[in-house]
Amino acid sequence: MRCALVYNPASGRNRSDRDAVINRIADALRSQRHKVDVQISPAPGAMTAIVRNIAADLDVVFACGGDGTVHEVLQALVREQPEKVAALGIVPLGTGNALARHLRLPLDPLKAALLLANGKTCTVPVGRVSRANSDRYFIVMAGCGPDGALVHNLLSSHKSRIGRLAYYIHAARMFVAHRFPVFEVEWASSPDGRVQRRRAVSVMAVRIRNLGGVFSGLAHPQAIIHGQSLCVSIVGPPAWLTLPLWFLSGWLRATRFNPFVQYVESTRFRCLSLGNSPVFAQVDGEFLGTLPFEVSFMPDALRLLTP
């Protein structure tokens, strides 16, 4: 196997021993007669360009980091045409590691890498977010409303130092002090394609069933990474009532009884602002900007290495 370990030594937690961990993984893979290249990203956002330059000559690109690292590497490996490109492997070195947990990978990075080195490659769909003449791909989730506002607030925080606790602190503050604007969501229902519209304060499309932590019960209950449509959760207004109830019913695993949450399956939806207040959006936990945006489904777009 020809592979590369791609990482940013300045991101995430436990930075001091990041180089040593990567070197141990590289040595272990080489001991199994794999050809291994180590690529260091000099800055956030540079990883995508690095992977684009090397992916054609590789069998696997290992994203060594958290969900943000996976997201950066993903941008270079998605293909809209059926051409063969390197598969995505995940070495969990982040805080959330949502996709790694979904794939039931060991959270020990060395164990995960060795397990995947003897794993299998499958082709999975991804989501595509189109906004302002640019596209971003996602494999975990994309949304707007509270999750977008949370990621926007975290831009100036010390998220990398305090990890998941940062999300909880900012989420609690937002529910107390933030006003969430109402916006419009329009989607084509699967499988009949009938266009529907409604007002919402939160829209979230997910590709995995468990987002982890206090967010674990908020995903669409039918979401799976091999699913052939976007699983979308829509929360209607008023936000002061429906958002706390959404979280409460999620914690109690009782969202099916919550009348303010609508679950739909679609291959395309879009969200539009209704006023002057900005509605923030995120993709795979990375800040995207403000509405409008459109999300579409891309079948068989990514080769993924699984145990």
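the 2nd protein, sequnce then structure:
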Amino acid sequence: MVMHEVSLIESVVALVEQQWAKAAFERVKVIRLQVGALGPAEPDALRFCFDAVTFGTIAQGSRLEIELIQGSGWCPDCRTDVALDDRFGACPACGGGRVHMTSGGVLRLAELEVE
């Protein structure tokens, strides 16, 4: 699974380099990501590959901060907002299987701290 996270961090670095081209900052201090608990990436794997992927880039030496976004959904069967631990799981309130995820599936570059 780490190979997937390597690709995701490479995409984040590409976004950072686009911002660098626009703003011409000297270095990146902190990269803040929002990572959904039900999303496409494993936070520990992102942390594991971060230093290797950022080596030799404008982001080298920066710190990675991850905000974990919990999963939630809407159950049309019981008309309830519910917490989700599994993207395709049953409704924890009524057991219905048609829960629509409303949060927790994100991977987003939330903020850069630069100088």
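The beta strands are 28-36, 63-69, 71-75, 80-84, 100-103, 107-114. The radius of gyration is 17 Å.
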